[in-house]
Amino acid sequence: MLLDLLFPNRCLHCNRIIDAREMVCGICMDQIKFTHHDFITPNFLTERCSLLFPVRHACALMQFEEDSLSRKIVHQLKYGQREMAGKVLAGWACERLDFAEEVPDLMISVPLHPRKLRERGYNQLHLFTETVAAHFSIAFDHQLVKRNHYRKAQAKKDKSHRTETEGLFSVAKRFENRHVLIIDDVFTTGNTISSVAWEILKAGNNTVSVLVMAVDE
Question: Could you tell me the pTM of the whole model?
Answer without folding.
Answer: 0.89
